[in-house]
Amino acid sequence: MAMAHVPLWAVCMLRVVLATVYFQEEFLDGERWRNRWVQSTNDSQFGHFRLSSGKFYGHKEKDKGLQTTQNGRFYAISARFKPFSNKGKTLVIQYTVKHEQKMDCGGGYIKIFPADVDQKNLNGKSQYYIMFGPDICGFDIKKVHVILHFKNQYHSNKKSIRCKVDGFTHLYALILRPDLTYEVKIDGQSIESGNIEYDWNLTSLKKMEKSSAESKDWDQAEGDKSQDWEKHFLDASASKPSDWNSELEGDWQGPMLQKPPYQDGLKPEGIDKDVWLHQKMKNSYLTEYDLSEFENIGAIGLELWQVRSGTIFDNFLITDDEEYAENFGKATWGETKGPEREMDAIQAKEEVKKAREEDEQELLMGRFGGQENTFQRFHRRDEL
To answer: 232: Cβ–Cβ under 8 A, 6 or more apart, which residues?
Structure first.
């Protein structure tokens, strides 16, 4: 039987349906972005954002994003969305950033906040769940931050992940999976991946609870053994022997039987402790949020410092689907990255041409100026 042909657009639509998109922002509706993003008023000296595609771009409208506008300032702005938990789900955080000003010192990272964050008072002390993205300062710091909040503390990835340092737009993506693996991508290419426990020097709640329960329950089982499991009971099936002499031997008492050790489904003799523990604990853990699991994600924001302004943030995405994020990146950054570089190359050539013309003009002016000075000297000499 011939297989039915499924058009590509149908497959793409199915992918969209299966994906959960928690937040997506492309700034395609002009100044209406101000209705969605809240500028913090915590400090009157905070820098301001504007919507811009920069001095060079791949598409004037599609490349518009939030641009920092003032040098030597802190910035704090955020957008809220419907709260969700990523417990047991993949979490993908993705966005584009362009350091058009050739960043010398400043942040290009984003933060993911709990839903109850105070947007109007957003500042460097505001609690966040995740901090992700590039940070550049001088020759020493050119890294991608991946900081996770776990058990009331912030933890950084121990690996050094290098960021892009040029003036073009780049696509950054962080993937956190429920199996405690992660991946960092730049421009669609995987640049770092691994296990969260190892790369953050942390221990999963699963392991911590297992270790704690193993010690507690095993000690309790051993302690109860002498109190309960070794108790004796009368053998009800026994009968008084026919030759029993009560006057000589006293009243007859039935024989005592010992209870089998480790009753009630607990550990029988000869079975490994870990096997018993698995049966005892199979439904006991995951009562708290584990590494890379967050209960009440509800806002995304920019809270950073820049010495020289001009950075543009765009194409924000938070989803549970890696493939959707990849396709979104191709449809946004992927479509404009080439034309952006072409426009920059054209502008660079024009600047070189203009500079050459200015140099030639100055040279010509210098020659004419020299001739005029010579004429004036001879003219004054004749007058003497």
So the answer is: 256, 257, 258, 259
Residue 198 is assigned to a ligand binding site: no
Secondary structure (3-state) at 38:
strand
Residue 109 is assigned to a ligand binding site = yes
Distance between CA atoms of residues 368 and 362, nearest Å: 10
Tell me: the pLDDT tens digits for 314-341? 999 999 999 999 999 999 999 999 999 9
Which helix (H) or strand (E) covers residue 176, if one does?
A: strand 169-176
Distance separating alpha carbons of residues 48 and 40, to the nearest angstrom: 10
- Give dist(CA 316, CA 311) in Å, integer: 15
Checking if the pLDDT of 207 tops 80, the result is no
Residue 230 corresponds to which tokens in the numbers above?
Answer: 């070794």
Contact 48, 38 (CB under 8 A): no
Contact 339, 332 (CB under 8 A): no
Contact 312, 66 (CB under 8 A): yes
What is this structure's pTM?
0.73
**The pLDDT of residue 8 is above 70:** no
Write the CB contacts of 45 (distance below 8 Å, at least 6 apart in sequence).
73, 74
**Interior/surface letters 4-22, b for 16+ CB within 10 angstroms, e for the rest:** eeeeeeeeeeeeeeebebb
Q: Is 135 annotated as a binding residue?
A: yes
Written as six digits, the tokens of 69 are: 């506008």
User: Any binding-site annotation on 111?
Assistant: yes
First to last CA, the chain: 114
- In this model, does residue 381 exceed pLDDT 80? no
Residue 270 has pLDDT above 50, yes or no: no
